[in-house]
Structures are given as structure tokens and as C-alpha cells.
Design a protein that fits this description.
- The protein is an alpha+beta fold and about 325 residues long.
- It is built from 12 helices and 9 strands.
- The relative contact order is 0.15.
- Helix 1 packs across helix 4, helix 5 crosses helix 10 and helix 5 packs across helix 12.
- The radius of gyration is 21 Å and the shape is globular.
- A hairpin with a 2-residue loop joins strand 3 and strand 4.
- Strands 1, 2, 3, 4, 5, 6 and 7 form a 7-stranded antiparallel beta sheet that branches.
- Helix content is about 45%, strand content about 15%.
Length: about 325
């Protein structure tokens, strides 16, 4: 399967748009996962703590491979704490802190996922990332379908085609219209449905955004989003993008340590399905491209936005998905 071209394939004449990818899985320790990354993309392997590694200066940039919990990694505020006297007690405290975090990581390694955070790569090179996924599969990586304890996801971070409010609004509208179809296509795992990490937008917010009279400037778009979505746990998380666009915004959601400012959409919905040979990053990218295609078609987007608003203001019946399926066949 080849990655499909989005309507705006380049960020400028020389550079293809890039996509950051994050994937979670179990049964492969961070060190071994880092070694597989190095085998595929080169670079130097460096260990930052017992459960966090980096591949530096690969041909695509820097990869981070770690257990996905801050509680299994040393807290740098503790390690770098300045004290009036460099006493034996403070040395002991730091040593106990590091050892306890390492032991906790060892204990929960079968439940807390290993995560690979990839550098942004050109969308046309996503096949190369799938070769790494194949290696993880052959190594025995377990995914979200392997246990009720697992709720592992694949996150895509596509570079936005434009930073203008009209473009961002169009993509948000297109996503809201297609969200039910995407969930059906992906077949969201029951554990991930229960967990809050990729919650859908509320119908009230969707109706507000899809109303033809809604024409916000960028600051209004951001404020309305923050009011309606006081959480990073949305299937399409715009907090990293808004933190990039408004670095001095006073809302603490945009300054949290878990929000990395970047000019991308943060698409959190897909399952991680490494154990399935027909699943790939390209597969999920191609589904995302349907959102971009609808966003780029101004007339069709307006027509389907009006249909969505009319449907949900008249009825809460589930026939919307049936209509979406018919549209996607056209």
C-alpha cells in the first residue's frame, strides 16, 4: 500500500509536508525497540535512563523510545535540586529516587507500553516507517487487541497545510463530519473507547463549528476550542497547534508539560495494531487524507456541514453513519 497524496502535498516548493508518528506497543523492551530503530534508520543509540533511549542523527532525525509513563523516569527537578550543602542525605535521596523509578519501570513494563516517538518524516516516506513496524511485528510486539489491559494507539501529527484560521476551521469541520466513519473504519478497540485518551467532540461543539454562520478569526477559534474542550484527550487534539500559534496564551492547557507546541494536527484516534500484517501507518495516513480532501473542497464541505447540522438538529438517530458510508462510496 502506498501513501496517498493530500490535496496540499508540499509546505513549499522544495519540501514535502511531514508527518510525525507515535506508536505504543508491549512485549518489546525500550532498548530492543531502540536497536530496531537504529537498524532501520541509522544514527547513534544513547541511553538517558533505564527506560528511555534516543536514536540521534538518524537519516530522518531523532527518535525517542521509552516506557510511556513519567513515573518510571527520574524527575529532573529532584536530580538537579540545588541545596545549600551537598550533604550525604541529598546524595542518598537522589540515589533512592533513581533506583525506585527504575524498579517501578521494571515492574510495570508488561502493562505500561513502550512508545516510539518518530521525528517528522515526509508523508511520501511513510512506507519506510512501515518496514520498522514489520520488524516490531516479527519481534513479537503486542498491540491493543492482545489484552483488555492494553489501550495502545497510533498518533499521526500531519504538518498543517496552512496556519490561516479559515484552513484550520475547514479541517476541523471536515474531521467532525467524518469522525463517525473513521471510528467505524478503524474499529476502535473497546479499551480505548472506555479510556479518555481519544474522546469525540461533543455534538454541541460540532453544531457550533459546522454552522455556516460560524466564521471566527484565529483567536476566537482558539478560545472557543479551549472552552468546549478543556482537555488534551480529544480524537483530534488541537492544543499542540494552538500552543505553537499562541505561545504566550494564558490558558494553562497550552502550557502543560505534556503539550509540545508544533505546527501540526495531533490525530489521536487510530489503534496500534502491529500484530495484524495488513495494518500500517500508511493505512491510517490514507484514512486521514480523506479529511484533508473534504476540507479542500469548499462547496462539498459547506453542503455536508449543512446536512450534518440539519440531521442532528432534527434527530439524534444513528443514521448519520449510514449516510457517511454512502458518501464515501461515491
Amino acid at each position: 500500500m502506498n501513501p496517498e497524496a493530500p490535496p496540499v502535498p508540499r509546505c513549499d516548493e522544495e519540501h514535502l509536508r511531514r508527518v510525525g508518528v507515535e506508536i505504543e506497543f508491549a512485549a518489546i523492551a525500550p532498548l530492543r525497540a531502540a536497536q530496531l530503530v537504529q537498524e532501520h534508520f541509522g544514527g547513534s543509540l544513547e541511553q538517558f535512563d533505564p527506560h528511555r533511549f534516543k536514536i540521534l542523527d538518524s537519516r530522518w532525525g531523532n527518535f525517542t523510545i521509552e516506557l510511556d509513563s513519567k513515573y518510571v523516569h527520574p524527575d529532573h527537578q529532584v536530580l538537579e535540586e540545588n541545596t545549600p550543602d551537598d550533604s550525604e542525605w541529598h546524595h542518598l535521596r537522589r540515589e533512592i529516587h533513581q533506583r525506585s523509578r527504575r524498579l517501578l519501570g521494571d515492574a510495570v513494563a508488561g502493562i505500561v507500553p513502550t512508545e516510539i516517538v518518530c521525528p517528522p518524516i515526509p508523508w511520501l516516506a511513510l512506507n519506510e516507517l512501515d518496514s520498522l513496524f514489520d520488524a516490531l511485528r516479527l519481534e513479537g510486539a503486542r498491540d491493543t487487541r492482545d489484552s483488555l489491559l492494553y489501550g495502545f494507539g497510533l498518533h499521526l501529527n500531519p504538518e498543517v497545510p496552512s496556519l490561516e484560521a479559515d484552513s484550520l476551521l475547514a479541517h476541523l469541520r471536515a474531521y467532525m463530519i467524518l469522525a463517525a466513519w473513521l471510528r467505524e473504519e478503524i474499529d476502535i478497540d473497546i479499551t480505548r473507547q472506555i479510556l479518555p485518551h481519544a474522546n469525540p467532540f461533543t455534538k454541541e461543539y460540532a453544531l457550533k463549528v459546522l454552522d455556516a454562520a460560524y466564521a471566527p478569526d484565529l483567536d476566537t477559534l482558539i478560545e472557543d476550542y479551549l472552552t468546549a474542550n478543556p482537555s488534551r484527550n480529544r480524537e483530534l487534539d488541537l492544543l499542540p497547534l494552538f500552543a505553537y500559534l499562541r505561545p504566550d496564551h494564558p490558558n494553562p492547557l497550552l502550557a502543560g508539560e505534556l503539550v509540545s507546541p508544533r505546527p501540526t494536527f495531533h490525530y489521536r484516534l487510530p489503534n496500534a495494531q502491529l500484530s495484524q500484517p495488513d495494518w500500517s501507518a500508511v493505512c491510517e495516513w490514507n484514512r486521514w487524507v480523506e479529511v484533508e480532501r473534504l476540507a479542500a473542497d469548499t462547496e462539498l464541505l459547506a453542503e455536508r456541514s449543512a446536512t450534518y447540522v440539519d440531521h442532528y438538529r432534527r434527530s439524534h438517530m444513528p443514521q448519520w453513519l449510514d449516510r457517511l458510508k454512502e458518501w464515501m462510496k461515491e
